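[Automated response] Your request has been received and processed.

Submitted sequence:
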Amino acid sequence: MGQLFAVAIATRNRSDHLARTLAALDAQSDGDFAVVVVDQSDVPDPELERRAAANERLRVIRDSGRGTSRARNLAWRSLDTPWIAYMDDDCLPEPDWAAELRTVLAGDPAVELVSGYVGGEEPEGGDYVAVTTLLVESERTIAGRWTRPWDVGFGVCMAIRRTALERLGGWDERLGPGNEDFPASEDMDLNYRLTREGGAVLHTPGPRALHDQWRSREELPELYYRYSKGWAGFAVKHMRTGDLRGGLMLWGARAKGVAKSLARGVRTRSRLRLRVAVAELRGLATGTALALRRSW
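Generated structure:
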């Protein structure tokens, strides 16, 4: 019998972060899974090559292209497992993450996507805005046409059925990191398409991971600008391709989120949160203008 799942990681020029993620996967109590790393780094990482040569479970695909969505598509199309567990190169799974995930997947849940607990320890020193965490405390199934994609989970760590990826055509390579126009929301787009077409999602607290909050406070406004710019592209894409109501809902949700960020920054008198909110607003406006001008 083949393996139940494999781990897919997209990376580019973050060898130190990737090494920590791979070390955490090597330390799993359950090691019956393969790992595929799609490396788009400017120069090959000799340490990664050495690690792959010494570990038969690890395979590296060198890709001269750009984009997280492209890398994720290359990964799942190179695998034959029923489930693909996507993990970012700055995600640190707990030692029993794989064992807990296996327990869930082996039960053949009536869902197409599984999200576990993804925490994030904020750095010391005061004000901070955490990046992509999902604090799953209890098990529940999420489904329905109007499921909010941010409730589903994040590409930082989630497992997807191969059949769902095949049905959806994989990740939209026009969205996500590596795309200058729309450098985010590739996972929100996948989540939205999956639930819109009837797919269900399982939240389960067993598989636990940590999303390393390594970015400095000074880097956060630019990061959230890119998040918001990508979201605008994601929302307008659906408006322009036959799902006007859904696209407007998605765009409005982001606008509402930006308004809440501004209000929170004012209420807490946080200069950082105000800078992040202004960056989000700028990203939403810039991304919307770009998305409305392009052909989808």
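Summary generated for your ticket: The radius of gyration is 19 Å. The mean pLDDT is 97.
If you did not submit this request, please reply to this message.
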